[in-house]
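Bench notes, bay 3.
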Amino acid sequence: QVQLVESGGGLVQAGGSLRLSCATTGIIGIINDMGWYRQAPGKQRELVAVVTRGGGTKYTDSVKGRFTISRDNAKNTVYLEMNSLKPEDTAVYYCNALIGAVGYWGQGTQVTVSS
């Protein structure tokens, strides 16, 4: 059974930093893209960043230059380094792993940025 477990969320002041991690278990096969999404209250879930197995990255415009996504293929783990956090970054952050054509989700971790 595939499981994704996020960690590293919390409460931080504006301008601060957090590092999210997403560990996976029960993986059979190769993980293609791994990504981070977020969902703020009353809003739709949105893509934050994605990293391919080869290390290619893509970011939503609002986090470019502040967030960095990375992965460890040996550990099937993905990370999100978040710097210069803003109150508008407040959301539940979810990791996603694409295995074949199936996407798997974690349970989410809350990130709250106070002004």
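Next record in the batch:
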Amino acid sequence: QVQLVESGGGLVQVGDSLRLSCAASGRTSSIYGVGWFRQAPGKEREFVASIDRSGSSTYYADVKGRFIISRDNAKITVYLQMNSLKPEDTAVYYCAARRIDSTWGNWGQGTQVTVSS
């Protein structure tokens, strides 16, 4: 089993930066990629960014150029560097592991990001 724990959320101002962390433990050899998702109040959860085993990354169009996903293999941690934050980035951010069948699972508990104008 894989466990993912997010951290790093908080309350920031428009234009500020924040770095989220997703620490993995357990059977990490079964992880084929890690993704960040977010869910704003009253909205469905949406994809933000992902990074796969090769280091290749994918971004949601609205965050491309502002957010950067990276990983530290030694710490088994994936980061989401969020720059130039906007009020519409306010949401609970979750990380998840991509399985061999390309489905997402092992969701973390989420971390709240609030961008105040």
